[in-house]
Amino acid sequence: MRDCSLAVTSMWALSFKLGVEVLAAVRLEILKEDIKTRARLGRLHTPHGMIETPVFMPVGTQATVKSMTPEELEEIGAGIILSNTYHLFLRPGPELIRAAGGLHSFMHWGGAILTDSGGFQVFSLGDLRRISEEGVEFRSHLDGSRQFLSPEIATEVQMVLGSDIVMAFDECAPYPCSHEYARDSSARTTRWAARCKETLGVSAGQALFGIVQGGTFKDLRRESAAGITALDLPGYAVGGLSVGEPKEVMYEILDDTVPLLPADRPRYLMGVGSPDALIEGVMRGIDMFDCVLPTRIARNGTALTRFGKLVVRNATVARDFSPIDPTCDCYTCRHYSRAYVRHLLKADEILGLRLMTIHNLRFLQNLMREIREAIAAERLPAYRREFFVGYGYPL
Amino acid sequence: MRDCSLAVTSMWALSFKLGVEVLAAVRLEILKEDIKTRARLGRLHTPHGMIETPVFMPVGTQATVKSMTPEELEEIGAGIILSNTYHLFLRPGPELIRAAGGLHSFMHWGGAILTDSGGFQVFSLGDLRRISEEGVEFRSHLDGSRQFLSPEIATEVQMVLGSDIVMAFDECAPYPCSHEYARDSSARTTRWAARCKETLGVSAGQALFGIVQGGTFKDLRRESAAGITALDLPGYAVGGLSVGEPKEVMYEILDDTVPLLPADRPRYLMGVGSPDALIEGVMRGIDMFDCVLPTRIARNGTALTRFGKLVVRNATVARDFSPIDPTCDCYTCRHYSRAYVRHLLKADEILGLRLMTIHNLRFLQNLMREIREAIAAERLPAYRREFFVGYGYPL
C-alpha cells in the first residue's frame, strides 16, 4: 500500500506527544472557493494520506468494500473509505480488531478511514431499540442478543478501530417525523456530541466530526448547527438527509444549513451518492460524501454511465459488445463487453459483481474529479448542465 | 494480457494455410524423463503460450474461473485453464461467443484454454438424458429445455469457442458399473472420437485430445487405449476416474493404462486435483490435471496448506493473526490473517471467497512447480515423502 503512511502517522503522533497541537489530526486545506456557487476545492490532510476534495467515499461496512481489494480501491482512485462501527462492534467485535492492531491493519488498507458511529444503524432497527439519555439499548440483527451503545462506547470502539475520522454518536430521526420528535432528538444528539468529544480527548491521529440533525425543520437545523459547531470540532457532517425526503427538500436544507458551518472545516453530507445529488451537494458547499448506492446497485446489475443508468442484466445488452460506458477508463470498461458482464451476472458469477462494482466506483471517482476540475476552471454550473443533459436528469 | 498471442496465432494459422503441417497446434516438448518413476518434465506449446508440465489447470466452467480475473490467474502462475462446453453451449450459447470473437476474447484471457466436450456433464444428468449412437438427448439443467449433443455438435461448439485443446465427446461411465455397460460405452466413445477428429479436421490452432475410458476394468482400458491411440491424436486423456472409486483403484488403472499412451504426446488425467493424487498421477506419467476442488473448497472456507487442510471458518482461527499458510507466497498470505479471512467468510463477504480462491489456486501452482523441480533434481519420490508427511497423508 502506501509506504509513507507509517512515517506520516509517526509525525502526527509526535506532534501530539510534544503537546504541540500544531496540526489537527484531520485538516482541510482550501485551495479555491467558487465564486458562482458555494463549492470549494480542497485537500483533506489525514494521518493516512491527503485526499482531494470534494470527495466520494466508498462504503466498506464490514471491514471490506464489498468485492474489492484495497489495491483495487487505490486503482480506482479512492483515498478514503467509510466503515461501520455498528457492524464491526457486533462482528468481529472491537477486541479482535484491537488485537489485529486496528482496522487499517486488520483489513490491509493504507488509506484513510472514516467510521460512522453506529447511530444510523441502531436507530434503523425500529422496535428492536430503546433510547435513553444514556444511550441506546438494542438487539443485534445477527443473533438477537441484547446490546448497548452510548456516545462513550461508540467513541471508544472507534478509538480501537483507529479510524482517521470518528463520527459522533447521533440519532438520525426518521422522515417524516414531528417537530417535537426532531427537536428532542437533535438536542440529545448535541449533548451526546459533547460526550463523544470528552471521550476522544486528544487521541493522536483521530479527528471527531459532529453531526448536525434537525430533520427537515430549518429552525431545528439552525439550533443543531449552533450547538454542534460550538464544540469546535475538526469537521462537521449534515446527517438525517437522504432518508426518504424529496431531493428539493434536501437541497433547501443544505442551502440553509451549510452556511452555518465554519468555512475552514470539512463538511460531510452523509448517505448521498447519486450523481445529481453529488453535484448539487458540492454546489452547496459540501466536501465529502458516502453512500452504498454505487456498490449496491452494481451487485443488482445496474451500472452508472455518462448516459444514465444501464441495467446490464437486461436482454437488450445480450449481444452488445461495447463497454458498459464507452467514455469510462475503468478496468471493466477497458477489457470487457456488456455482453460478457451480463453473462456473468445471469450465471451468478462473482466476477460479474466485481466488474460492476469496479465500474460504478470508478464512475463516481471520475465524476468527483470532473467536479473538482470544473471548480478549478470556474465552470461548475456549466459542468452541471452538461452532465445533467448527458445523464438524462431534468435541468 | 499477452501481447504476443495474436502474432503467435497468426503464425500457427499460416503454417496450416501453407499446408505445411510442420507443427501440431499443441505439442509437448519433453525435457526430461524421470528414471525412478514414469514422471516427465515438459513444455506444452499451444497457440496461446507455452506451459510447463506437469501442470494443474484451474476450472473456469462458465467462461470465468470463479471469482478470479485473468490477471489474477496470471499472477498465481496459471497459463492454461479449462472451460466447459456443456455450460457455455446452454448459456450464453455458441452464437454469442462466436460474435464475441471466441472464448479468449469474450472472457479476456490470453493464455491457453482446454474445453471439455460436455460429455461428463451430460452423462451426469442421469434420467434427464437418452443416449443413442448418434449422440445424447438431454434436458437443460437451467430451464428443462430439450437439447442434443453429438460428437459433431460438441466439436463444432468447441471450434466456435476457439479453445486450444478440444476434448473428444465421450461417455464417462458411472462408478460402479457392469463390465458390459463399460464395454459398450467405451467402444462408443472410441467411435465418437473418430467422428470428432473428422469434424475438427485441421482446424488451425486447435488440437483434439482423445479420451480413454473403460471404467475400472483393465481389459477395457487396454481396448480403449488401443482404439483411441489408433486415431493418432495430438494428446490423450484418461477419463472416467476420480468418479467415486478408491484412490488405489485409480492408481492401479493409471499404472496399467498410461504406458499404453504414446510417450511423445501430452497425457491428461481428468478431474483430479487433490495434492496426493496430483503427485501420484505425475509419478505414473500424467502431464496435465484439472479439478474444481481447489476453487470449490475455497468457497466453502477450506484452505489447502502444506500442513493439511485448514477450515478457515472454524472458531479455532478466530484470533489467529498468522497467514493461512505461513510458507505460502500468494497475495492472500502476504497481506491477510486467518482471522480477517474468517471474518469475511462469516460475514458472507465476496472478498473472503476471492482470497480463499487465490490461495488454493496458488497452492496448487506451487505444488506443481515443486513437483517439476523434484523431477529435474531426480528426487520426486523423496519429495512425495516429504510432502505427504507435512500434509498428514499416510505414506
Automatic annotation (TrEMBL), chains A, B:
<dbReference type="InterPro" id="IPR050076">
    <property type="entry name" value="ArchSynthase1/Queuine_TRR"/>
</dbReference>
<dbReference type="InterPro" id="IPR002616">
    <property type="entry name" value="tRNA_ribo_trans-like"/>
</dbReference>
<comment type="subunit">
    <text>Homodimer. Within each dimer, one monomer is responsible for RNA recognition and catalysis, while the other monomer binds to the replacement base PreQ1.</text>
</comment>
<feature type="active site" description="Nucleophile">
    <location>
        <position position="290"/>
    </location>
</feature>
<feature type="binding site">
    <location>
        <position position="359"/>
    </location>
    <ligand>
        <name>Zn(2+)</name>
    </ligand>
</feature>
<dbReference type="GO" id="GO:0046872">
    <property type="term" value="F:metal ion binding"/>
</dbReference>
<feature type="region of interest" description="RNA binding">
    <location>
        <begin position="271"/>
        <end position="277"/>
    </location>
</feature>
<dbReference type="InterPro" id="IPR004803">
    <property type="entry name" value="TGT"/>
</dbReference>
<feature type="binding site">
    <location>
        <position position="240"/>
    </location>
    <ligand>
        <name>substrate</name>
    </ligand>
</feature>
<feature type="binding site">
    <location>
        <position position="328"/>
    </location>
    <ligand>
        <name>Zn(2+)</name>
    </ligand>
</feature>
<dbReference type="GO" id="GO:0005829">
    <property type="term" value="C:cytosol"/>
</dbReference>
<dbReference type="InterPro" id="IPR036511">
    <property type="entry name" value="TGT-like_sf"/>
</dbReference>
<feature type="binding site">
    <location>
        <position position="213"/>
    </location>
    <ligand>
        <name>substrate</name>
    </ligand>
</feature>
<comment type="function">
    <text>Catalyzes the base-exchange of a guanine (G) residue with the queuine precursor 7-aminomethyl-7-deazaguanine (PreQ1) at position 34 (anticodon wobble position) in tRNAs with GU(N) anticodons (tRNA-Asp, -Asn, -His and -Tyr). Catalysis occurs through a double-displacement mechanism. The nucleophile active site attacks the C1' of nucleotide 34 to detach the guanine base from the RNA, forming a covalent enzyme-RNA intermediate. The proton acceptor active site deprotonates the incoming PreQ1, allowing a nucleophilic attack on the C1' of the ribose to form the product.</text>
</comment>
<feature type="binding site">
    <location>
        <begin position="116"/>
        <end position="120"/>
    </location>
    <ligand>
        <name>substrate</name>
    </ligand>
</feature>
<comment type="pathway">
    <text>tRNA modification; tRNA-queuosine biosynthesis.</text>
</comment>
<feature type="binding site">
    <location>
        <position position="170"/>
    </location>
    <ligand>
        <name>substrate</name>
    </ligand>
</feature>
<dbReference type="GO" id="GO:0008616">
    <property type="term" value="P:tRNA queuosine(34) biosynthetic process"/>
</dbReference>
<keyword id="KW-0819">tRNA processing</keyword>
<feature type="binding site">
    <location>
        <position position="333"/>
    </location>
    <ligand>
        <name>Zn(2+)</name>
    </ligand>
</feature>
<protein>
    <recommendedName>
        <fullName>Queuine tRNA-ribosyltransferase</fullName>
        <ecNumber>2.4.2.29</ecNumber>
    </recommendedName>
</protein>
<keyword id="KW-0862">Zinc</keyword>
<feature type="region of interest" description="RNA binding; important for wobble base 34 recognition">
    <location>
        <begin position="295"/>
        <end position="299"/>
    </location>
</feature>
<comment type="similarity">
    <text>Belongs to the queuine tRNA-ribosyltransferase family.</text>
</comment>
<feature type="active site" description="Proton acceptor">
    <location>
        <position position="116"/>
    </location>
</feature>
<keyword id="KW-0808">Transferase</keyword>
<keyword id="KW-0479">Metal-binding</keyword>
<keyword id="KW-0671">Queuosine biosynthesis</keyword>
<dbReference type="GO" id="GO:0008479">
    <property type="term" value="F:tRNA-guanosine(34) queuine transglycosylase activity"/>
</dbReference>
<keyword id="KW-0328">Glycosyltransferase</keyword>
<feature type="binding site">
    <location>
        <position position="330"/>
    </location>
    <ligand>
        <name>Zn(2+)</name>
    </ligand>
</feature>
<feature type="domain" description="tRNA-guanine(15) transglycosylase-like">
    <location>
        <begin position="37"/>
        <end position="389"/>
    </location>
</feature>
<dbReference type="Pfam" id="PF01702">
    <property type="entry name" value="TGT"/>
</dbReference>
